[in-house]
Amino acid sequence: MATATVSLAAIRRLTVSTQAYAPRFRRAQAGDVEDGIRRLSAVQLDSISAVDRAHRLTLSSRIGVYPEQELQDLLGSGLVFEYWAHEACILPIELWPHCRRTMQGQAHWRFYAHALETHADLVEPVLERIRAEGPLGSRDFEGAGDGTEMWNWKPAKMVLEGLWDRGVLVVAGRQSFQRRYDLAERVIPRAMLDAPTPDEDETLRTLALLAVRARGALTEPAIREHWRLKGGRARLHHHVLGLVDEGLLREVHPDDGGPPFYVDAQAELDGAPAPPVLLCPFDNLVWDRPLLERLFGFRHVIEVYKREHEREYGYYVLPLLAGDRIVGRADLKTDRADGVLHVRRFHPEPKVRGDVRAKLERAAARLARVLGLDEVRHA
Q1: Helix axes 220-227 and 200-215, enclosed angle (nearest 10)
Q2: Pairwise CA distance, residues 98 & 251, whole Å
Q3: Counting beta carbons within 10 angstroms of the beta carbon of residue 192, is it exposed (0 to 12), middle (13 to 18) or buried (19 or more)?
Q4: What is the DSSP string of 80-146?
Q5: What Cα–Cα distance (Å) separates residue 58 from each residue in 24, 66, 197, 306?
Q6: Are 211 and 227 a contacting pair, CB within 8 Å?
Q7: Once rounded to an integer, what is the mean pLDDT over residues 330-349?
Q8: CA-to-CA distance for 260 and 262, rounded, in angstroms?
Q9: Separation between Cα atoms, residue 360 and residue 344, nearest integer Å
Q10: Residue 366 and residue 26: Cα distance in Å, rounded?
Q11: Using one digit for the tens of pLDDT, what is the confidence trace for 172-231?
């Protein structure tokens, strides 16, 4: 197996350039949303909206401002779909057959299987209403949670989620970020519904290749983390080596003496620097914390679930990327009524050179413009 030794800095530059952050403010063109999702392989969803929804921050940092309705249309026409990947994500439709094994298995979380077992009497009535009325949300069903489950969902919501987990229902769009469910057979293209289920080996090879090409360079554990694959090294590593043997991936050994990285066979081990950009806390670049620490010397912390006095950096903190380094963290809050992006706190990273505040100003000004806000205010 051919190997090469390269600098960790070159690998870092490759990972940054692969993300294709927009160098300046722009407006997305037709097709950019679908293309952006496909290029990233998965875009994480999250309900927190302190600045903007996670998927919008992730996509707009690359493709620019886009109308949310375009994404809703993609969901409704089955060109992309929501399902489990790194977490709940928006995925390109080509991955539907590869997700079927999970859909037909024991559920992503036991909670979903338990919901369908506990409320089996609701399954057919829920499906019948959707068949008759079209896409419906949880709010279209009566009931209330009993306080025994973590999210305190009402029974109909639990059934809707369980049927989504099984691939019987899909998210055909969102209204105020609330899912609207429809029958998979009415949304997902027939070619995807009829496609045979790939065997596990094919799925693992496909996922490994997609992850590396989407991220630029990954270690084998980081490939697993990209998709949250279970089974450890024994399940995936031989498939990665097989992709190397076939000339699809290349194994490179960094000069820090750590485990090897895998890159696309045609990749140039370098890349253009990124403009100053404030990253979504759930951006693909920061998904793998051990990898992030190794490549950037940056310890990613998400503190939204901590009590205020326990937070070191703030509530909703966006890492500031500039060039090929993460140079600081900004605790941000959007005030749409006043048209203001508030920078509540900023912590530059230790030993960072140059005018970090100027980089923050440039990134914050661009983000405010993307969000349709009038100004940036610092606490």
Answers
A1: 100
A2: 25
A3: middle
A4: EEEEESSSEEEEEGGGHHHHHHHHTTT-SSHHHHHHHHHTHHHHHHHHHHHHHH-SEEGGGS-----
A5: 15, 12, 30, 23
A6: yes
A7: 97
A8: 7
A9: 13
A10: 10
A11: 999 999 999 999 999 999 999 999 999 999 999 999 999 999 999 999 999 999 999 999
230 CB-side CA count, 13 A? 4
Q: What is the pLDDT of residue 1?
A: 45
- Whether residue 145 is predicted with pLDDT greater than 60 in this model: the reply is no
CA dist list (Å): 17 to 9, 271, 290, 294, 349 = 12, 5, 20, 17, 21
Question: Could you tell me which residues are beta bridge partners of residue 36?
Answer: none
Can you tell me which residue has the tokens 């949300």?
137
Q: Name beta bridge partners: 333.
A: 342
CA 335 to chain centre: 25
Identify the band that residue 150 occupies on the pLDDT scale cut at 50, 70 and 90. very low
> Which residues pair with residue 378 across a beta bridge?
343
The residues, any chain, with a CB within 8 Å of residue 133's CB and separated by 6 or more, are: 140
Q: Which of 294, 284, 300 is nearest to 16 (CA)?
A: 284
Mean pLDDT calculated for residue range 295-301: 96
Contacts of 136 (CB under 8 A, 6+ apart): 129, 130, 180, 181, 182
**Summary mean pLDDT of the chain:** 94
As a whole number of angstroms, the longest Cα–Cα distance in the chain is 64
244 or 117, greater pLDDT: 244
Residue 154 is predicted with a pLDDT of 86
Strands, sheet with 178-183, edge to edge from the N-terminal-most edge strand:
136-137, 178-183, 169-175
Question: Which structure tokens are listed for 36?
Answer: 């952006």
Q: Does residue 106 have a pLDDT over 80?
A: no
